[in-house]
Each structure stands twice: as C-alpha cells, then as structure tokens.
Amino acid sequence: MKLKDKTAVITGSSRGIGRAIAEVFASEGAQLVITGTSIKSAQKTASEIVAKYNCKAVAVALDVSKLGSCEALVKASLDNFSKIDILVNNAGITKDSLVFKIKESEWDEVIAVNLKGVFNCIKAVSKPMFRQRHGRILNITSVVGQIGNVGQINYSASKGGIIAITKTCAKEFASRNILVNAIAPGFIHTSMTDKFTEEQERVMASVIPLKRFGETFDVAKAALFLVCDDSSYITGHILSVNGGMYM
Ligand SMILES: NC(=O)c1ccc[n+]([C@@H]2O[C@H](COP(=O)([O-])OP(=O)(O)OC[C@H]3O[C@@H](n4cnc5c(N)ncnc54)[C@H](O)[C@@H]3O)[C@@H](O)[C@H]2O)c1
Fold this sequence. Notes:
Blueprint: E1 7-10, H1 16-27, E2 31-36, H2 39-53, E3 57-61, H3 67-81, E4 86-89, H4 104-132, E5 135-140, H5 144-147, H6 153-173, E6 178-185, H7 198-206, H8 216-227, E7 238-241
Parallel strand pairs: 1-2, 1-4, 2-3, 4-5, 5-6, 6-7
Helix pairs in contact: 1-2, 1-8, 3-4, 4-6
C-alpha cells in the first residue's frame, strides 16, 4: 500500500480524472476528501468509493474560485483527519471561444476557477502543511498550457499559469519538505472531451503518436507516482500524460 493512512484532498473528484485519482489513491490505502461543486455529487462519489475500497472518505462542496471555500475545505479536512498529506488541484472548466469572439466573462470565469482556484487551494493548505513539515501538492495542468490551442486563450493561459505556479511553489516550499509537481494530460475521455464527434476525435487522435485519446486511469496512475514515496526526489516537474502529443 503506497498511501497507507495518508490524507488526500482532491478537488473536482466527483467525476472524471479527479474521481479516477481518488479511486487509485483509495486502492493504495489513502483516506479521502472528495469535492464537487454540489454536496450531492460529492457525497454520491464518496459513498461509492467507500463501498468499493472500504476506505474512509468525506464529501465537501467546493467552489475553488473562492478563497473562503478553499479555507473551509482545509478546515473540514483537518477536522476529519487531523492532517493533509496530499493536495491534488484537479478542478477545472473550459469556456472555449476564438479571441475576437470571447466574452470578458468567459475569460474571467476560466481564470478564476482554473488558475486562481489552484492559488486559493495552495494558499489555504500551505499553513497546515508547513507546520507538518511534509506534503505533496499535485496540480493538473494541460498539454495546451504547453503548446497553446486555437479557441482556448482563457484555458491555455490558465494552464500555462499553473505550470508557473508549480515551479514557484516547488522552490518556495522545498525547505519544508513539500514537493510540488504537475501532470499535463493530453486528450482524455471525460465529460470535458465528450463534446467531440466520433469524426473529430478520429482526426485529433490521428496526430497523437499513440493514435488514441487517454483514459482517466492513465492520469490517475501517474498521479499516484507523483504523490507517493517513489518520487521523493522529484519536485517542480511537469509530467506529460499525452500519448506523445507533445514531447
Ligand atoms: N479531459 C481532458 O482531456 C483533459 C486534458 C487536460 C487537462 N484536463 C484537466 O483535468 C482536470 C479534470 O478535468 P476532467 O476532464 O475530469 O473534467 P470534468 O468536467 O469531468 O471534471 C471537472 C471537475 O471539476 C469540478 N469543478 C468545476 N468547477 C469547479 C469549481 N468552481 N470549484 C470546484 N470544483 C469545480 C467539477 O465538479 C468536476 O468534479 C481539469 O483541470 C482539466 O482542465 C483534462
């Protein structure tokens, strides 16, 4: 068991990549804080994971764009488990549009959730992690934060910013034995990518060396590596899980 009795807080774990990360961590002995934008969705996922893995889990409603909500998440996690060993900043949204058409609100919302949300959660967790003098923070960025993408100025800016946050916090937190890394997924099958038609997916997959989209558990297994003791000399790293789409 690679995460026995570790407490892991995973934002946006009610579904998709966050849920797969929660399941892999649970299978390795972690106790979980599951979050969703609604308490109902978080509770449903938490109870399904508890039933499947016989682990401890609590559900918390979270809006990462609000610092107060992230502080309440940290408090609820500490009230339940007394410590936070792992924070995974996974919550994210898209509001795609070309630059000349994008609304100010679409820019603001994506930056508030994807970029400020990561800052808010890291700020909220930093004090208890500093006191513990250990911790792992894993941020979920994206290949488009590395290479850009047409129609995603807001999303790619937010994901590029997460890479900068990862490197800054890796440097700032290293003296407290807190390691900060990121995963940059390529195209992964979730509700975020199910808007593509079969034909669009075929065309997109044709330029990926592995010729397919990834699955949520491809990301989750990489996440396990970056939060367990196997990676104890790795910090500030951006791990690509993209089928070779960007090297
Ligand atoms: N699916 C992909 O192809 C892909 C590729 C690269 C990166 N990513 C990133 O992976 C992460 C997970 O995405 P996914 O594909 O599983 O998407 P998803 O839409 O299935 O899940 C997103 C999660 O974020 C939560 N969320 C949304 N707004 C929130 C808010 N304001 N506060 C708190 N939680 C909020 C949702 O409740 C949900 O649990 C995101 O950061 C996304 O940008 C996804």
